[in-house]
Design brief:
Number of strands: 12
Number of domains: 2
Number of helices: 10
Organism: Malassezia pachydermatis
Order of helices and strands: HEEHEEHHEEHEEEHHEEEHHH
Structural class: alpha+beta
Strand order of the largest sheet: 2-1-4-3
CATH class of the largest domain: Alpha Beta
CATH topology of the largest domain: Nucleoside Triphosphate Pyrophosphohydrolase
Oligomer: single chain
Keywords: Kinase, Transferase
Helix content: 25-40%
CATH superfamily of the largest domain: Nucleoside Triphosphate Pyrophosphohydrolase
Protein name: Thiamin pyrophosphokinase-related protein
GO molecular function, one term: kinase activity
Length: 305
């Protein structure tokens, strides 16, 4: 794949608007839409309800919890029961073959219309229902403005062999973003927690809708961090098998590999955000500057933290 512009690069990730897709069913929680359900999942969930009496309802074009399923714990049990049944029935190998045994927080609106975690769900199953998910991405860069870029391991379930952000990971239910970032830095890149805490700062938040090659809808919010390494001598190295290698790249090398389609799609948005914030991408040197900047903050229009 060869991309012709940075706007094309951005569109490899921000490539969807499920709100405009009339084929999707709505997943509601307490009357608030929080997800986007395709026909195949709608049909499969109806089968699950009939087979194991899962406390969900499918009426009209709306999927929701049964009235008896009104607490966070009850909803968590119900939606995970459905996900586990779908996995056991081999209904959706993609994405359920990537089962992680990690619970993600799914948000709705609580008292005073404030966002709350309404329930949690197995990470790999969130895409089935089009629920918004949350992660952290960090860019580690040297004093001479080179960026540490890992290559994803060849055995990764998703995007094997693609370039990634310096460190990244999903936020599990109950974990705060910065603590997630510190943990991921230790696990993925072998970085000392004290160094990360001393030199990392919160930089941004990006939001986008991603439609996977198989059509799963993934609204996502990423918390963005910068790690200004105090020395060129500090090395990032694979630690937990998520990456096969790390490489220092300058801006031009990163752009070349972006245009070649060698980066995982959402990682390009994180890097474009870094380029804008650090003055590498400006209205003077990029004709699509305003469009790119807007794409980095696409309104999800569902409850988020």
């Amino acid at each position: 794949m060869v991309l012709n512009s940075l706007l094309d690069v951005a569109y490899t990730c921000q490539n969807d608007d499920p709100w405009t897709d009339a084929s999707l069913y709505s997943f509601l929680c307490d009357g608030v839409q929080i997800g986007f359900v395709p026909q195949s999942v709608w049909d499969a969930v109806q089968d699950c309800i009939k087979t194991v009496q899962a406390p969900l309802q499918c009426e009209g074009r709306t999927m929701t919890f049964a009235p008896t399923c009104s607490t966070k714990d009850a909803r968590t049990e119900a939606i995970n029961q459905v996900a586990q049944w779908l996995r056991e029935q081999r209904r959706f190998p993609d994405p359920l073959d990537g089962w992680r045994n990690e619970q993600y927080g799914i948000y709705s609106l609580g008292p005073a219309q404030r966002p709350i975690i309404a329930f949690t769900l197995e990470r790999s199953a969130c895409a089935l229902f089009g629920f918004a998910t949350y992660g952290v991405h960090l860019t580690a860069y040297t004093p001479d403005h080179r960026i540490w870029v890992p290559k994803r391991a060849a055995n990764k379930a998703t995007w094997p062999g693609y370039y990634d952000n310096s460190v990244a990971g999903g936020i599990t239910a109950g974990e705060m973003p910065f603590e997630t970032m510190v943990r991921e830095c230790e696990e993925e890149a072998g970085l000392d927690a004290a160094l990360v805490r001393a030199h990392t700062h919160t930089a941004s938040v990006i939001t986008y809708f991603y439609k996977t090659p198989l059509g799963w809808r993934q609204p996502e919010m990423q918390y963005i961090y910068d790690l200004a390494l105090p020395s060129n001598d500090i090395q990032l190295a694979p630690s937990d098998g998520e990456a096969e290698s790390f490489e220092l790249m300058d801006k031009d090398t990163i752009l070349q590999r972006m245009f070649a389609g060698e980066f995982k799609p959402n990682c390009t948005l994180v890097l474009l955000d870094f380029f804008i914030r650090h003055g590498w991408l400006t209205p003077e040197n990029e004709k699509d500057y305003s469009a790119i900047a807007a794409l980095l903050h696409t309104p999800l229009r569902v409850p988020t933290p």
